[in-house]
User: Fold ATP-binding cassette domain-containing protein from Streptomyces viridosporus T7A.
Amino acid sequence: MSTTADTADHTPVFSVDGLWKVFGPKADRIPGDPELAALGPAELRARTGCTAAVRDVGFDVRKGEVFVVMGLSGSGKSTLVRCLTRLIEPTAGSIAIDGEDVRAMDKARLRALRRHRAAMVFQHFGLLPHRSVLDNVAYGLQIQGVGRDERRERAAEVVAKVGLAGLEQRRPAQLSGGQRQRVGLARALVVDPEVLLFDEPFSALDPLIRRDMQEEVVRLHREEGRTMVFITHDLGEALKLGDRIALMRDGRVVQLGTPEEIVGSPADDYVRAFVRDVPREQVMTVRTAMRPAASAEEAGSGPAVRPDATVSEAIEAVARAGGPARVLDGGRCLGVVDSEALLDVVAGVTGAPAGGRAAGGAPGSKDPGAAPAGLRAPAALATTGEEPV
Ligand SMILES: Nc1ncnc2c1ncn2[C@@H]1O[C@H](COP(=O)(O)OP(=O)(O)OP(=O)(O)O)[C@@H](O)[C@H]1O
Assistant:
């Protein structure tokens, strides 16, 4: 199934509005009290003994997108994502999954939500040490009451899907860290949840294995189009995986947007500092640098690049051709990019197209414009010919 902009279904999977989670004594009074709600973290703690881990957050998670929640340690990422399935009880606000009110669910309904609809992949998977890989994966089905043969068959399929074929009978202790992560991923996948929630699953892995696992997530997402919510404190990981990123600070979402919007149009100085060292040409797309063709001749000649090609890829095409490149979408020329405009993007003189903005307390993602962009697979480009490859 395709997961990208060609999917017309924009129904949100999760819809979150005005969400608060306050820890501490008489936490309930904070969200409704404008004076207390306006206090900074230190002052709030001093005055009330409370910590507002999530402060008035709103966003939608769209079907088929990878929604990344990013922020430094303590910014509220885990608390926010745990509130989605009420592993942590919210203090105020609303959460819906497919339009159903999560806060109104009884215990049985919540159990079903966590088992069937929104499976969580943790950093420490808590694999059962005395069970084989296959049985660990099948366990999720066992607690659902699926019969033995069927669950072993389905588990074997998913074990193969995450690249562990041949290791079915090993115990967790006989696996590397990365392989254990794959077992955890398989265990979440086997129940075929509508949405996968990842809580910093790769942060304990060494960089090479971490990259493998990120690529695994990209591949699975591309193949299956499953909706994913992914927590990370790593900006590179967020930019690589996210269709959209919610950047958190002190419990608030300070900006919600595509990687391109966050890097190209930071909402404030905090975000600007956060993204300062990102190689812009690898995140920004040619849309940012595009201008209308000056003449029919310009619209009809020169190398072709796709609209989602990165600036870095376009620079290569322009350098090879020695002149402007055309941005082609299904054979239609949307505009052209030249070396000057591309360099402006690299230098930070040009921002991202409209859309990246502070989310504040408003329902952050209710902007109708941008459809899930799909993962940024390197947009291949052609240096000659009519169609960008
Ligand atoms: N049970 C709790 N009781 C009190 N305060 C808590 C509790 N859980 C979290 N907090 C506080 O809430 C804030 C947000 O914590 P949270 O774990 O959600 O952040 P995080 O962004 O996920 O951090 P990390 O990346 O370190 O996991 C922190 O200030 C934390 O100390």
